[in-house]
């Protein structure tokens, strides 16, 4: 079998960033998959499941309610390697076009207080596995270290 696209990325030189992972045609629409990389793979520790789960609930809620973008949001969820998230949006987009959206989203998570949306037995299959304080920590780190200092090197995959 052919190696899938995400397994062809140089994870040795990959740093935290906002990357276009792929673009797919679905009928007449283009779907852009973004790689929101939070950690330096195989160097920094992987993210904790409970923090990722809290980020997933909060980011998905924010993105699907954000007035300018909600009609374009198809999916937000964790990477299996626990180094970041995938965001799928309708449209032929580039990383720089979503930086403001991501800043707002992760500021929302960093500043969030209260009950995590959907974190109930009725609404979630693993509702007890959430860690809001660590989710807030990761969101602040991603904002400060990546989104506030975005550059070519963390918006284009290493060669």
UniProtKB/TrEMBL annotation:
One term of GO molecular function: S-ribosylhomocysteine lyase activity
Oligomer and partners: Homodimer.
Gene Ontology biological-process entries: quorum sensing
Enzyme class: lyase
E.C. number(s) listed in UniProt: 4.4.1.21
PANTHER family (alphabetical): S-RIBOSYLHOMOCYSTEINE LYASE
Reactions catalysed, as given in the entry: S-(5-deoxy-D-ribos-5-yl)-L-homocysteine = (S)-4,5-dihydroxypentane-2,3-dione + L-homocysteine
Homology family: Belongs to the LuxS family.
Highest classification ranks of the organism: Bacteria, Bacillati, Bacillota, Clostridia, Lachnospirales
Protein name: S-ribosylhomocysteine lyase
